[in-house]
Design brief:
The structure is a single chain. This protein is α/β, with parallel strands linked by helices. It has 6 helices and 7 strands, in the order E-H-H-E-H-E-E-E-H-H-E-E-H. It has a single domain, classed as 3-Layer(aba) Sandwich (Undecaprenyl pyrophosphate synthetase), CATH 3.40.1180.10. A 7-stranded mixed sheet has the order 4-3-5-2-1-6-7. Helix 2 packs parallel to helix 3. The longest helix is centred in the middle third of the chain and has 18 residues. The chain is globular.
Length: 228
């Protein structure tokens, strides 16, 4: 569902709140080109919007949020872009650490593309303070890497959900994607199985609190049956 601005980003009470929100912050490179910048320069402008969204989620009472930082496929891009989105990912994690959030970086930590600064958070949750919200960052993530862990698990004594690499990430209720694209792009396929999908046409660096509020407003009327 595509969104439009309907109100300011002031904290508002909703009758129904998604427990876990997935965030696909797309459009950084297109935003850079639009502003006559090199493509890699767009990533640094996406950090502050993420921090702003984290605070808004916490203020509304969201229990978990997952950001799509970068994928294994993204590592095929130009070196300047790889360096830029890696630095942005590290900045985002370090900025949220120690602030009453529980942090985890989910992805292939055995790869050279996984930032060494984030190894303390690699596929394990690090709790801080009151732990009011879980924050997951998909870093060097691949759905193939995630599901491949099922092969090495004894599923006769556990569920498939518990056998994947990202098993500590809960089921997602609502996914919000910036940048106008209407696809998951490999975003947590197991946890996204029953997620509602809201698309914001604006590029991620142009984030506004209204985008988030619009998504929550739209979510109020979604028919949540979980297949039943």
């Amino acid at each position: 569902m595509r969104g439009r601005d309907i109100m300011s980003g002031k904290t508002k009470k909703f009758k129904r709140l998604p427990s876990h929100i997935g965030v696909i912050p797309d459009g950084n490179r297109r935003w850079a080109v639009k502003h006559s910048l090199e493509k890699h320069q767009g990533y640094s402008h996406g950090v502050d919007p993420g921090l702003q969204l984290v605070e808004l989620c916490a203020n509304h009472g969201v229990k978990e949020v997952t950001f799509y930082a970068f994928t294994v496929d993204n590592t095929k891009r130009a070196v300047s872009q790889i360096q830029a989105y890696t630095e942005a990912s590290v900045r985002a994690v370090e900025a949220t650490a120690g602030r009453d959030y529980n942090i985890m970086a989910v992805g292939n930590a055995e790869s050279k593309f996984f930032p060494p600064e984030l190894l303390p958070y690699a596929n394990k949750r690090v709790n801080y303070g009151k732990g009011v919200m879980n924050i997951n960052f998909l870093v060097n993530y691949s759905w193939k890497w995630d599901l491949a862990h099922i092969r090495n698990s004894d599923t006769s004594h556990t569920s498939v959900e518990d056998a994947i690499a990202s098993h500590e990430v809960s089921r997602i209720d609502l996914i919000i994607r910036w940048g106008g694209r209407q696809r998951l792009s490999g975003f947590l396929p197991v946890q996204s199985v029953y997620a509602d999908f809201f698309v914001v046409d604006d590029y991620w660096p142009d984030y506004k609190d209204e985008h988030f509020v619009n998504a929550l407003q739209w979510y109020q009327d979604c028919d949540i049956t979980l297949g039943g």
